[in-house]
Amino acid sequence: MTLDSGLLLAALLAVGFAAQWLAWRVRLPAIVFLLLAGIVLGPLAGLLNPDRLFGPLLFPLVSMAVALILFEGSLGLRFAELRGIGSAVRGLIGYGAIASLLMLAVAAHLLAGLSWDIALLFGALTCVTGPTVIAPMLRTLRPHARIANVLRWEGIIVDPLGALFAVLIYEAVVSREQGHTMGVFLATVATGTVAGFMAARVLAMLLRRRLIPEYLQNFGTMASVLLVFTVSNAMAHESGLMAVTIMGVALGNMRDVHVDDILDFKEHLTTLLVSGLFIVLAARLPWPLPAGTLVSGLGILAAAQLLVRPVSVVVATAGSSLGWRERALIAWVAPRGIVAAAVSALFALRLDALGKPGADALVPLVFILVIGTVVLQGATARPLARWLGVAEPEPRGVLVFGADEVPRAVARTLHEAGVRVLLADDDWEGIGRARMDGLATFFGNPASSHADRHLDLTGIGRLLAMSTHRERNSLACLHYREEFGRDRVYRLRNLGPEETSERAALADNLLAPPLFEEAMTHGRFAGLLSQGWRIKATRLTASFDWPHFIEQYGSRSILLFGIEEKGALRVVSTKRELEPRPGWTVIALVPGRGVSDPE
User: Fold this and answer.
1) Which of 335, 398, 575, 585 could crosslink 374 through cysteines, CB 3.0-4.6 Å?
2) Does 302 have pLDDT greater than 90?
3) How far apart are CA 343 and CA 166, in angstroms?
4) Which tens digit of pLDDT belongs to each residue from 563-579?
């Protein structure tokens, strides 16, 4: 059955979206569903033939997509962040990664019969994890904070380092295959390094001097990456991947260069590229697989899971403060992701064109390892964490956005009542006062890409947007709907005379349920506190229930939260009223003696 090319491209985007959505629903990395979709559409159903669909454009399109993915990954490597990550992470991204590379290469050589140079390339591609596979797994796994921090930082930092390892080994393999000397190899690496660094300097200069308007910065960056990739390849064959990797690392570590908008854009672009790229790459897999590939791939998977990762973790965490239970879970969790799959496919295309023996087995072996680690660890990591006693309970904590007196008072009371609270804002003075109150804090906008990489949400399951900025509250609620769910994000309304008009009102789809009672706004809450009202936490009993509380503190008392006997937090909103029961701890705003409610 043959389909129109336009229909196939549209269907490709639709299938990519469906795979991403399914991954979001089941909380697994999207790469698994994308690869499975490609296998079904390509070798199994015969509906998608990438070579026929794209023709001679297939290799250039894959090359450019991989170049953008490598730039995206390397842009997130910040050298300044390496100083505070702890000895365990330094070990995992240093000699731990090198040990994994060598052991995986040995496994590929012995079990799959790959030549040593292809085996080393396989080891470089598969020795790393990445944030795109670690983040969804951590949401499901929910380990203790120390384990989550180690795994998260390992994925963030080792992803671009692994790409650099793979590019260097690939350059060496290609140089040797083409009969080049060591001098040619070094010249290729040098060309890519100089081209990438110079391109980063030029782009940084343009951004600093604002010679590129903001609405063109994303487009200009993408065009620059692709231009550097192709020009570097023209100057020295196969140096383009090195150039874009160095360009990303250099640009990400330059001072006074604001790349937040670029980071946001490349995240959306990478989602689109990854969705289409992996379906296309998986559709090119030969079916049935070459003789012995499946067996050898499963053997490598077993070796990686049961031998390579545990040994590298033991070596990397020697002397750290991690306990054996924490090390055991870290040794089990190491899913492979985007860089391994994308770069291996590009390398295989090029090496196969050069007639390199074993290149045709590279992609199937990598894909087996990617799918196997994600599925196996996704299904078993949470039960293992519970058995080891290193799993967090249900995420009952609260992320509070805002640092003025209102969110600080709410956060302080919740914290004193035993609820985990993390207060975030870019108000340095307010954050400082919150720290003086003993609250856990994050300095920065919780809806920023910086927060995506650095904000530890372990044990956090709700957002209370309570800042004085109405639009930023709405943006934070939109951002965390995907993380927590639509019914677990709330906002404290900010209403002024100019905001009550229909012209100034925000669209309903941008709004989360308002906190507390219908008439409660940030201004009114602050006014009540300044008038002597206070937030009171009281445990109800059979002899002192909610009616008795109202009788003692007055009918004007405003219920804010309820904490059930088992610790579950209930939030009062305009869409959800509470009926406190004996055994609950109620948190309410109550008037002081002789004070009134300023309307």
Assistant:
1) 335
2) yes
3) 8
4) 887 778 888 887 777 78
